[in-house]
Amino acid sequence: MKNAMIALISAVMLIAACSDKKPQPKYQPGTPEYAFFEKVAEKVPVLNPNENNVLVSTSEFSVYISDVAQPLYQTFRRFEQNIETIPVNNVTDFLKQFSTQKAERELMLLAANKSNITVPQDSLTKRLVEIYTRFGGEDKFVEYLAKQGLDLEFVKKDVKESSIIQKYLQDVVFNVDDNISDEELKEAYDKDKTASVRHILFKTQGKSDTEKEEIRQKAEKVLAEAKDGKDFAGLAKEYSEDPGSKDNGGLYEDFERGRMVKPFNDASFSLPIGAISDLVETQFGFHIIKIIDRKKETRPFDEVKDELKNSVSALKKSDAYTNAVESLKEEYKYTEHFENL
Q1: b/e burial code for range 114-125 (CB count within 10 A of at least 16 → b)
Q2: How remote is the C-alpha of 199 from its chain's centroid?
Q3: Interatomic CA distance for residues 189 and 304, integer angstroms
Q4: Which of 97, 224, 245, 319 has its CA 20 to 30 Å from the CA of residue 238?
Q5: Strands (E), the chain
Q6: Within a 10 A sphere around the Cβ of 314, how many other Cβ atoms?
Q7: What CA–CA distance (Å, rounded) separates 163 from 280?
Q8: Residue 121 and residue 77: Cα distance in Å, rounded?
Q9: Backbone phi and psi for residue 286, each to the nearest 5 degrees, phi listed first
């Protein structure tokens, strides 16, 4: 239940309206939030509460600091009394994540509206009742929202938009062939199920083209060292910017096909065991990947047939979603403005 609450509130916090007209800063002097961002801005200047910088722009809307300030504050407010210990890299990473999620949500709404997607009011009402029930009733839910600086109208708007997006995904984006043949299932069964790799990440999110080129050159030098036989785990500990694997020598062990972003996944499941990739670029940056091991399914085909159907269907939907988002970003001239983070 706790996870459901967190997921709901996180979604609600990202529903402030976007527009081409620059909105006013979200917080005013004298509020705890203003004081918090005033202090944090000493480390991350773009969060100055007197300004409202754009984070993402498109031809139809922009995402500003004010659009993601609330979830950012809720994520890091535990540092209010001790700002000097706040992890700056985490702040900027979450700022990018929240603004990207907000922009992609708005793009999906644009596409859904263009496709004339609607959701019946009774379905929305049913969803709201389910939410109230999880929180112990409408009054308790409203009380909880107030503590987060939100109100019920925002939640109703969020439920409506989320339902429209889900229907658009189901009816348009995920409208893939559900009749998966036995041949497809057997092909999936015969493929390696999991991979273990070590990798080195050089982050490029929010960097300018010039900075990306400098990062690429640095990555190429480390790649040359790796291919010359230098200890890969040691290189990962020294150079990788992936906090999830750096201290473990860049190791990701026994992850299933499709779990990682596509370019990373493709390299992990196509290169020979023991091979070191060339630079692999994802939305996170440049990766150098060394293939440690791969494993196949050990259970009989008939025993895992239903699982395979779900897996193949999920992969198709994941690819469809990624393609849809990238297409919308191109159509609406999506641009990130993370240079000063």
Answers
A1: eeebebeeeebe
A2: 20
A3: 9
A4: 97
A5: 54-57, 62-64, 192-203, 251-256, 280-282, 285-296, 335-336
A6: 11
A7: 36
A8: 36
A9: -100, 135
Name the residue among 56, 55, 52, 12 with its Cα closest to residue 28.
52
Name the token pair of 263. 């370019």
Question: Tell me, what's the pLDDT at 93?
Answer: 84
Adjacent-strand bridge partners of 252: 197
Backbone angles phi, psi at 275, to 5 degrees: -75, 155
Closest by CA to 62, choosing from 315, 317, 270, 335, is: 335
Tokens 């900027």 found at: 92
Q: Per the structure block, which two tokens stand in for 125?
A: 């009402």
Q: Which two tokens stand for residue 4?
A: 């459901």
**What is the rounded CA–CA span in Å between residue 270 and residue 192?**
10
The H or E element containing residue 166 is helix 152-168
Successive 10-residue mean pLDDT values, the chain, 341 residues = 42 45 84 92 92 94 94 90 85 90 97 96 95 93 85 92 95 80 92 96 84 94 97 97 94 93 95 97 95 96 92 86 95 90 75
